[in-house]
Specification:
Length: 317
Amino acid sequence: MSAISELSSLRRGRARDPEEARLRRKAGQDNAAGYLFLLPWLIGLIVITIGPMLASLYLSFTEYSLIQPPEWIGLENFQRMLGDTRLHNSIRVTLIYVLVGTPLQLALALAIAMLLDRGMRGLAFYRSVFYLPSMLGGSVAIAVLWRQIFGTDGLVNQFLGAIGINSSTGWISDPDYALGAIILLHVWTFGSPMVIFLAGLRQIPAMYYEAAAVDGAGRWTRFFKITLPLLSPIIFFNVVLQVINAFQSFTQAFVVSGGTGGPSDSTMFFTLYLYEMGFGRFQMGYASAMAWFLLTMVAAFTALNFFLAKFWVFYDD
């Protein structure tokens, strides 16, 4: 008997084994149950995520006003972006917001995490209090509160008056300061990266600090030679997440500027301009093209972060 025929007979023999057949039926039933539990997620992925993405990709090559049927125009929407000065300004404003606000936010989050890592009393309470801004910072209520704080008669000017500095500056109505006020709001929402930093700090072995202290290393030396290198994977994780979140910021600028991106387009984020073109001027085809350009920018920054990570992120292996 040849080897092939012998293997075939063995497979047939196994197939006739009732115990193996029962196990196969049970495995099939388990797989069916698994797919059944995954079904809601799969439906959501297709209907809520993939479907709208494919629709917006198609609309980006059309002229669509939400009233008339979409009309295919090819690459005209993307060519239009090259000469749209307001769009260029929105990119500039968004990049300033991302490149200034994200490092400041992460620096503050790391500083607070290191303070909480010292094991103070009521750590759970302080951790919850500091995390709270991350939950509320993107809400309309906080944006309205920020608008009041930085208004002409707001708390900032009242505080300056209390220390002898008379100021009537409308911090959110002055083009020179409006973006800075929104960046401060972004920095204030440091709670989420702070909790992640705190978890990372708890994973650094204390023996490294003890050995460095014995060798006479100071506090700053221990920070730069031990804390930052061992915490670099956590820093990288937070950088990627917060950069992506910063690019998608919308509520703060919309509420603080009254939906106009003012004054003088100084707070016209890319997402806010996209909203204006799509739902304000009903140029949904152009807005779809802008959305895909935003996706490209986010992907480029994420890829750049991963490329640069090999120069400063250190792992145990």
